[in-house]
Amino acid sequence: CVIAVPTALLFQESYRSSSIEQHFYESLPDRVRQLGISYVGQPYDFMYPANHFFDTDHHLLDWARTIHTRKLIALLEASPMCWSK
């Protein structure tokens, strides 16, 4: 079972202020689902400030990874798409 989740991203103001960027992130879950892939979460919920990252926009610091992982666990526990309770 494949479940897509939002990636950790460095938040950029343009992701909200640009209509093109905003449409991309807001429509992403539905576009993935249209491919037949389950998607949980919302991209904006996994965009973090610069102080959460080291050396690139995608490498979270250890304490920030813990925050990110806990968010993912909560999403997956609340969305049992591939298993039954």
Structural account:
This protein is mainly alpha-helical. The protein is 44% helix and 9% strand. It is built from 3 helices and 4 strands; from the N terminus they run E-E-H-H-E-E-H. The strands form 2 sheets. A two-stranded parallel sheet has the order 1-3. A two-stranded parallel sheet has the order 2-4. It starts with a strand and ends in a 7-residue tail after the last helix. The mean pLDDT is 91.
Summarize the structure.
With 85 residues, the protein is mainly alpha-helical. Helix content is 44%, strand content 9%.
Structural class: mainly alpha
Question: Helical residue percent?
Answer: 40-55%
* Parts with pLDDT < 50 across at least 5 consecutive residues: none
H/I helix tally? 3
Distance linking N and C termini = 16 Å
Portion in strands:
5-15%
Shape: flat
Round the Cα radius of gyration to an integer and report it.
Answer: 14 Å
| Strand neighbour order, sheet with most strands | 1-3
Largest sheet: 2 strands, parallel
The H-and-E topology, N to C, reads as EEHHEEH
> What is the mean pLDDT?
91
Strand segment tally: 4
Helices and strands, with pairings:
Blueprint: E1 3-4, E2 9-10, H1 14-17, H2 19-34, E3 38-39, E4 47-48, H3 62-78
Parallel strand pairs: 1-3, 2-4
List keywords for this structure.
3 helices, two-stranded parallel ribbon, about 80 residues, mainly alpha
